[in-house]
Each structure stands twice: as structure tokens, then as C-alpha cells.
Amino acid sequence: MAKQIKSFGMARMSIGSCADFHHQVMKHVTTATPAALHIEDKVEAYEAAIATLDSIVNRQRAFVSTKVLADADRVRDNAVSIIIGTARLYRKSPVAEQSAAAELLYPQFSAYKDITRHEYSKQTAEVRGLLAVLAVEENKAAAATLGLTEVVAALQTANATFEESTAARTAEISGRMVQSDLSSGDALDAVNDLYKGIVQVVNAYAVVQPTDAVNTFIDSVNGVVEYYSRIAGSSASGGSASEGGNEGGGSSQGGGGSQGGTDDGSDDGEL
Questions:
Q1: pLDDT tens digit string along 197-250?
Q2: Which of 31, 125, 182, 251 has the highest CB neighbour number within 10 Å of its CB?
Q3: Where are the domains of the chain?
């Protein structure tokens, strides 16, 4: 009886376990060499499919810029609240210079009511407008009278940081566009189909032209299959074929369709 690579319920594995399974198989392909296994025309595509699966398993879902944006926005909120609140309070100051400065500034802040409650993008535009108001010479002097010069500078820095971080966020999103468009199911189907193609060729040569390299590879892969079949909660089948070519199930691989398990967190949605 000729040796054959066994089949098992691949569809029961999570996408992460499936990726690891194919990595283990690929190690044995490399050891045996594609030429000895007669699969030179299949290995490049198989390796590429494994790499695609890896990119989905390890897909980054958080953004590096998130904390920077949150910190900068907190500074903006505090600075805006102090600037507008100070102008409102100092309208009643008994010091004429202060009340005059407040009366000059406060009406110009009316466009920025509830600014700290607005979404990031709207607030960024509004802070830019508020800073333009405060950059006018007489307004700048009035803000200095109320002791707001350093607060205005802090607001300017925070808003600039926020805009830079927003640009970084969009760059991160752009960099992930290709990856985020990948379908887990399609990637699994592709790599599993390529694996089945390799198995079919190797199993066929094990019947018609067995060699030590082919048989050793089959033994090695069957060890991998046994291990991962336990992870999948299934049992391996096949493993031998008659010399006449009536195979004992080894050339038919379970789980040809999309993998059902994606419990390692992989998905097709946006991060």
C-alpha cells in the first residue's frame, strides 16, 4: 500500500490555527524541496497565500494616533473653556481695563458655543477660527490683559498637534486599505485549495513513483495533520492507497470551503 497524506476537518479550525497549520506544512515542503515533491509550480502561490492569511490574522485594529488625538483634544477643550470662560467672567471685573478687554472678546466668541462638545473634525475647524480671532492685534492685546497669552499658545500647539495626528491617522487608514479589503473566507479558500492541489500531486506520486523524499514528506505532514485534527476536534482519515491507484481517502482534504472559525478576532470589517 502506498502512503498518502491524510485528510481532516480543516473547516473546524480558527483562521489563526489554519495559518499555523499551513506554516508547518510549508516547513516540510522546504525541507523536502519542491522539486523532489514535483510541486515547483505550486509553491510560490502557496507561500503567497499563507502570507495573505498571516496578514489577516495579524491585522492591526487599533491606531497609533488614537492616544495622541485624545490627549491633544483634552488640552484643546481645557484651553477653550478657560479662554471663553475667562472672557465671560471678566465682563464684570471692577478693573476697567479687564472688563473692557472682556467685553471686546466675549461677543466674538459667540460662534464657538458648545465647541468642546463637537466632533473632532468640526472642533478642529472651529479652534482654527478662534485662533484667527485671537491673532488680531487688538484681540491679542485684550487676551494678554486677561492673562490668557500662554493659554492661547497652548491651544495653538494642541490644535496643531491634533491636525498632524489626524493626517497620521488618515495615512494609517490608507496603509491598511488593501489589507482591510481582504476577505477571511476568500483567503482561507485560496490557501486550502492550493494545499489540496499539493496533496493531490504528492499522493499521486506516492502511488506511481514513490521515493524516500516523498514518503518522508508524507509521514511528516501526517504528523502535522494528526496534531491539528485534534485542535479542530476532528479525526484524520486516509493514509494509504493501493498500488492500483484506489486511494484510501488521502487525496480528499476536508474543509474545502471557507473556515467557519474566526474566534481569534479576525474579521472582514474595518478596524
A1: 999 999 999 999 999 999 999 999 999 999 999 887 766 665 555 554 443 334
A2: 251
A3: 2-60+183-241, 66-175
